[in-house]
Amino acid sequence: MFDMMNMLGKVKEMQAKLKEAQDNLVKVQATGESGGGMVKVIVNGKKQVIKLDIDNDLLKPSDKEMLQDLIIAAMNKALEEVEEKAREELKKATQGTLPNIPGLDLGSMFS
């Protein structure tokens, strides 16, 4: 019975740490670039685009399709990078709160 109460306390502690870590994901940032740095996208750990920078040389109507492709490529790079950073932040936040349970990967819960 005592072990069950102790485990419930650990679960509540982990939930609180996980919630705090999730709230802090807005501070985690990653940058993706394409076109040799002509397009840059910055995203946060909640997978929100927070900045888009486009080189003036790309702002020509005739380059619209290429620009769209470069933006998509930069966004995808930034999202891939921030996903890994966010997973690491969540893993650090919950480390040591619960025993290692085989098959329980907390980082994969948020991808």
Automatic annotation (TrEMBL):
Annotated localization: Cytoplasm, Nucleoid
A GO cellular component annotation in the UniProt record: cytosol
Region span, Disordered: 90-111
UniProt xrefs under InterPro entries: YbaB-like_sf, YbaB/EbfC
GO molecular function term, any single one: DNA binding
Superkingdom as given in the UniProt entry: Bacteria
Parts forming coiled coils: 4-31
Keyword set, alphabetical order: Coiled coil, Cytoplasm, DNA-binding
Quaternary state and interactors: Homodimer.
PANTHER family linked to this entry: NUCLEOID-ASSOCIATED PROTEIN YBAB
Family in the record: Belongs to the YbaB/EbfC family.
HAMAP family, per the entry: DNA_YbaB_EbfC (MF_00274)
Function: Binds to DNA and alters its conformation. May be involved in regulation of gene expression, nucleoid organization and DNA protection.
Protein name in UniProt: Nucleoid-associated protein QNI22_17790
